[in-house]
Amino acid sequence: MKQSILFIRSFLILFISSVFLFSCAIDQEKNPDVLPALEISNVPYGSDTRQKMDIFLPAGRSSDKTPVIIYIHGGAWIDGDKSEFLQVKPLVEQSFPGFAMISFNYRLFDFVSKQNRFPAQEEDVKAALQFIRSKLKEWNISEKIILSGASAGGHLALLHGLKNKESDIKGLIAFFPPTDLTSLFGFNNLTTLGLTEIMGGTPLTVPANYQNASPVNFASSEDPPIIFFHGETDQVVPISQSEKLETALKNVQIRHQFIRVPNQGHGFAADTNAALLRQAKSFLGEL
């Protein structure tokens, strides 16, 4: 008798477990949110060999709940690579859970051939965003975009976001960005030489080039929320560049946050980056 009861109990447990697992399998098939994480590397968005991007899509994504954070690498517009993002990707995932992430290369200025003078880099940001927008449905992600970058990448993110007034860009994040190329010119000999070549002249000979490439000149009341960080001991891009941006944003009363980072230069420690990304998410809130 006792053996019969144990047999029946075991049978019931097995039966209930099977029904539960079968039901879960059916729910997954019916649930469009259950999509696996996906990484797509070196996707071309133009014909140049530099015009490629990496896409990181989260599991369970959907077009109504998966915003996109786009990262633009630094390198003084002459160097760098989209792989720079991999250094901070785990930190971004922690602070922006459930977000799709994209990083892309852009054409770099070549001192030897003189190819790809500015605004080639600005044009590539536009082309990359146009391509991304064309793929939102295919990738099952939202049209809500946060544009971010560091150094020259921060400059490009700010320039695009402030200059183009696109409603799907919901926030801008910049790390130690150049913001006013006219005043940056002459900061040191390398800056003077580099900007002269990249911009095709000096602020005196081609003033419009510098003005059109400076984010501070495009701040307006239509801009998205902006948060930016700058090391107080930065010897590559002086903190005065972020101070100028803060003044421009205050003048047009745009919601922004400028965080000075003590004892940090042009590039932050990992724990500093983690804390700043948490602040960025808190500032931008839910999209």
UniProtKB/TrEMBL annotation:
Keywords: Hydrolase. Residues 53-249 form the BD-FAE-like domain. Signal peptide: none annotated. PANTHER family: AB HYDROLASE SUPERFAMILY PROTEIN C4A8.06C, ALPHA_BETA HYDROLASE. This is Prolyl oligopeptidase family serine peptidase. The lineage of its organism: Bacteria, Pseudomonadati, Bacteroidota, Cytophagia, Cytophagales.
